[in-house]
């Protein structure tokens, strides 16, 4: 059978040990971190980035990034932001934008915020300025009257997916700033789905429409 990710090698063990062969066998490449080569790399990264320095990983991700961004409002200290950041990293979003409070719960990010471009905006107006400067169409994701079903919508290639916080959803200002509002089809009794889950669904919809799947790990 073909070899899988390194975390499959030993059950319960993530990552790899010291570089085989000792110092004399270390690769001559500035992207590699001497400390990781010597002691091993137990980080939550794909095998391609094993032993790489943090800034080298971040630079490579930025070069591979897709032309979509993700934004989430944080006026009530939303605990879903970490999940949004982790998912944005998995889908190689060009950036994550947090509107409102600077502080957010990083536990759900699983350290991916160290490699992901994170932007902060005090208010929606700041986000709109960024989107305008970078020619990003703002697409709000919210189950509100008049929203276009995400399942049939065509997301712009260069866009900023905007999500509200858990509970109240998007603010009126955020909805007004969007050139397109999309909703996710639901069939059960709950009024809404988790904001982190909604973000993952929307990002993957963009991936299905625009990503080059041959570049996936």
From TrEMBL:
Domain tRNA/rRNA methyltransferase SpoU type intervals: 68-204
- Keywords noted in UniProt: Methyltransferase, Transferase
Region span, Disordered: 1-22
Please indicate if the UniProt record lists Methyltransferase as a keyword.
Answer: yes
Q: Name one GO biological process term.
A: RNA processing
> Can you tell which superkingdom this protein's organism belongs to?
Bacteria
**InterPro entries annotated for this entry?**
Alpha/beta_knot_MTases (IPR029028), rRNA_Methyltransferase (IPR051259), SpoU_MeTrfase (IPR001537), tRNA_m1G_MTases_N (IPR029026)
Q: Which GO terms describe its molecular function?
A: RNA binding; RNA methyltransferase activity
Q: What is this protein called?
A: RNA methyltransferase
Source species, please? Pseudonocardia asaccharolytica DSM 44247 = NBRC 16224
